Description:
mainly beta, Immunoglobulin-like, six-stranded mixed β-sheet, Ig-like_dom, immunoglobulin domain, IGSF5 protein, Ig_sub, Ig_I-set
Amino acid sequence: MYLQTEFFFFLPGLGFCYSIVNGPTNVTVLAGSEARFNCTVSLGWIILIWLSNGNPVLTVINSQGAVETSDRFTSQNYTSSNGFTSELIIHNTQLSDSGQIECSTQQTSESRFAFLSVQVNGSLFIKNSTLTVKENKTIEIVCEALGWAPAPDITWMTNDSFIDKSWYVNHQSQGSNGLHNALSILTLTPTNTEILTCLADIEVLPYPQNATVTVIFVNSTV
């Protein structure tokens, strides 16, 4: 009886002889782009299920391949001597896709988790493109960022140099549909004509978005 029990434990296909070798890892992407997650299981698996925020979005069956129910969730599969890898591809990512991505095996109920963060590049503008300022006059320049996720980090530059943070104040507020707004107010007393640049940045942008204003300095003796 003991030998029979031990033999049953290692029978292939019953769900006890394989496991998730490597689970998915966290991904951060810009809204509208693709997000990809890999899950590798050892050979002997039967059914693998992908879930987004607890909802099944794609099933992979050993005997027939991927069962896709949405054009936004597709997969590519790779088999090697080390196991089977399912790559989940989320197309045209949306802010609502942010959250937990789960790779689960039906046989052993084993799961591995990762998190998807979808960021949104909003708008950035300064109301006036040019400002005329007289000598010894202090001005406030407002740079506004609308519809971002997360709220962007705003900085200022002049003549290719960053302006000291003590010269401006940033405010953040909650927008609609999970988006964020930001406002930056730069206070300065110009001594010459210069171009000021407001920069807004989030993690996924290769370069910050920018808006510029030309401050024209007018000597009071003129």
